[in-house]
Specification:
Elements: E1 2-6, H1 15-22, E2 27-31, H2 45-56, E3 62-66, H3 78-97, E4 103-105, H4 115-131, E5 138-141, H5 154-163, E6 170-175, H6 176-181, H7 189-202, E7 208-213, E8 215-216, E9 227-228, H8 236-244, E10 253-256, H9 268-285
Parallel strand pairs: 1-2, 1-10, 2-3, 3-4, 4-5, 5-6, 6-7, 7-10
Antiparallel strand pairs: 8-9
Helix pairs in contact: 3-4, 4-5, 8-9
């Protein structure tokens, strides 16, 4: 498992690599543009080359991009459709340029429309974006179970994958906080085993390319997306240890998106805590 964290690109794309190294990351996740604005960041070919050189000279083995939350691939509103298309294509273009292992995507919201119609619109936008780009995969992320946002259960994830063409470049990212908040009891290892069995049956483990590792501020089935630092939420040390030590997750990129001690994201201590909990979980399983 490649344990890493979401890091900032402030000051330049290659600075994200240094921030990952400082935290002893095996992998990093970045935004491709300001997550609060539609305007794409113009990364030059030189900046991308510097990033790749920095990656090659570091301990890091993987980078994933998180698409901005403004994107709604299921929208019916033309201005949102156009802005979402532009932003998604920008994420994929950067992903191609820096040899990214995937663009993690929240599919968006149905906005009160029938789910089938919303998924069909999402599939059209995503499949067109894949066709217009070269290599980088799109990874649909599960949501916390609130009404509207797509991907609240494995059935919806499978339908999103199918609508997008179900090609090799379409995958899934599972967030343990979102799983728990949407009603999946994954605290005990044996419960997580059954949940992942179900994921394999409905979606397929071959689609699972990335993990997000966050504790949950809210209880099981609360349907709210509220991240907590590892071991400090409702999943607790046992839940995080179970998730990190699941044998079928071996080899995957696992990104921490926790608040950190100062609300600036996971720090070195949090990365070390993740590895300690993983070792604890593996020991408990054996």
């Amino acid at each position: 498992m490649l344990i890493g964290a979401h890091v900032s690109t402030a000051g330049g794309l290659s600075n994200a690599v240094a921030r990952g190294v400082e935290r002893e990351c095996d992998a990093i996740q970045i935004f491709h543009q300001n997550p609060r604005m539609w305007r794409p960041t113009d990364y030059s070919a030189e900046a991308c080359a510097e990033f790749k050189a920095a990656m090659a000279g570091s301990r890091l083995k993987s980078v994933v991009i998180h698409a901005v939350y403004l994107i709604n691939t299921a929208s019916r509103e033309q201005p949102v459709i156009e802005k979402s298309q532009t932003s998604l294509l920008h994420a994929l273009a950067l992903g191609d340029a820096i040899d990214c292992d995937g663009v993690v995507l929240h599919a968006g919201s149905a906005k009160g429309d029938p789910i089938a119609d919303a998924i069909a619109r999402s599939g059209k936008m995503v499949s067109e974006a894949v066709a217009a780009s070269e290599r980088c995969p799109i990874l649909f992320e599960n949501t916390a179970g609130t009404q509207g946002p797509l991907g609240r259960d494995f059935d919806e994830l499978a339908r999103l994958v199918e609508a997008a063409g179900a090609g090799d470049r379409i995958g899934v990212c599972l967030d343990c906080c979102h799983l728990f908040a949407s009603g999946f009891d994954i605290v005990a290892a044996e419960h997580l085993t059954r949940v992942i069995d179900d994921f394999d049956r409905v979606v397929g483990l071959d689609r699972l390319r990335c993990l997000h590792v966050n504790d949950s501020q809210v209880p099981l089935g609360a349907n709210r997306d509220r991240h907590a630092n590892l071991g400090e939420g409702e999943l607790g040390e046992q839940g995080i240890a179970s998730f990190l030590s699941e044998p079928r997750f071996e080899g995957l990129t696992a990104i921490l998106e926790t608040p950190g001690p100062d609300k600036q994201g996971a720090d070195l201590a949090e990365l070390r805590r993740a590895r300690s909990l993983r070792a604890h979980g593996a020991s408990a399983r054996s």
